[in-house]
Amino acid sequence: MQLSRCTLRAPKRGAFGHRRPARSTRCVVVASTRQDVLLRSLSEAAEVSVMVVDGTQFVAEAQRRHRLAPTATGVLGRALLGAMMMGAFRKEEEQVQVVFQGDGPAGSVLAIADTRGNVRGKIDNPAVDPPLRPDGKLDVGAAVGKGVLAVVRSHPLQPQPYTGLVPIVSGEVAEDLASYLVDSEQTNSALGLGVSLDRECRVKSAGGWMIQVLPFCSEETLARVEANLQALPPISTLLNEGSSAADITARILEGLGVAPDAESIVPTYGPCDEETIKGRMLRVLASLGKEEVADIIRTEGKLEVTCDLCAQTYLFAQQEVDSYIDSGRDTASDFFPEDDCNDDDEEEVAEGQPAEAAAVAE
User: Fold this and answer.
1) C-alpha angle 192/180/8, rounded to 5°?
2) Where in the sequence does UniProt note compositional bias of the Low complexity kind (predicted)?
3) What is the pTM of this model?
4) Closest CA to 51 of 242, 220, 214, 268
């Protein structure tokens, strides 16, 4: 018996009677004072593992950095929340990349998370904002479209990353990630993700939960969890009402008890390590040569490079680039290893897939 896969979406944005902003409207981000938290708990009998994340702050930060339209905020926000729960509390230095390669107007959507709750991501089209669904909710599925979901797990001690591919089921993110966990990692799981915006398109709440059934879980426990999920309101509704991660965990495990000694971390959105990313940016700039760098400065008046994932912009002086070139350091290869902030992340996902994973996507 499989635990039902549940996808929770953002609440209806028309609840306050406001009109949808024009497509060119950018969201004004005013973060709440609530601190983000990712909480992992077990049921008293250690049959079920539950993770609950309140990621309102870091989703708002992603919205601010990437200047996301409303639906783009929902798409990237859900991907970031899901990747964080899939990557947290695992082996030290392990990293997970979640890539949605859909045919919708959002383009490619990338989220990268590590075991400590650090998460970054990007969406090809930050202005994507299709019409609302008939029920008045953000049409995340239409923005993502159909295609392939790729999940890459990597660790410095592994000879190569593990990559799994599954078809995008709905484009609503939570259902797709649950499908991946069941089909590719054989983990009986359910996920709920939600991003709620206020009438000014600010992130009002963002969070999610992930349930994993552990070995020797009884049918009675499984039935109780499923019943609890059926009665559980959307995650964004719970957060808007003031529920904490511990409160939501207690509702999911109602009747089963929550084991003591739950683990928690404070998740954050970027930025990338400045020293590391600036060094790699210098290698790219140096590969252009002194003359082209000088021409860019003459034409643009400055030399700046922006990281795709954290959206942080760095300024470089011509003398800084020239000195790097004169030092004779490598400028021709290996600009960005697999965990860097760059567009090559998607290309790495598409190469060297296991035969059985590639067959799923056909």
Assistant:
1) 15
2) 351-362
3) 0.78
4) 214
CA distance 304 to 286: 13
User: Across 198-273, where does the E strand assignment appear?
Assistant: 203-213, 263-265, 268-269
Nearest residue to 73 (alpha-carbon basis) of 15, 25, 34, 18: 25
**Residue 177 — φ and ψ, nearest 5°?**
-70, -40
Which among 315, 68, 283, 316 has a CA at the least distance from the CA of 195?
A: 68
How do residues 71-129 score in pLDDT, each as one tens digit?
A: 999 999 999 999 999 999 887 778 999 999 999 999 999 999 999 889 999 999 999 99
The conformation of residue 340, written as its DSSP 8-state character, comes to S
Q: For tokens 């808007």, what's the residue?
A: 240
- DSSP structure class, residue 173: S
In angstroms, the Cα distances linking 353 to 148, 160, 172 are 13, 11, 24
d(CA 340, CA 76): 18
> What is the widest separation between alpha-carbon atoms in the chain?
72
Name 89's Cβ contacts closer than 8 Å, sequence gap at least 6: 40, 51, 115, 263, 265
Using CA atoms in the order 333, 337, 342, 343, what is the torsion angle rounded to 10 degrees? 80
Q: Are 214 and 187 in contact (CB under 8 A)?
A: no
Q: Is 133 exposed, middle or buried (0-12, 13-18, 19+ CB in 10 A)?
A: middle
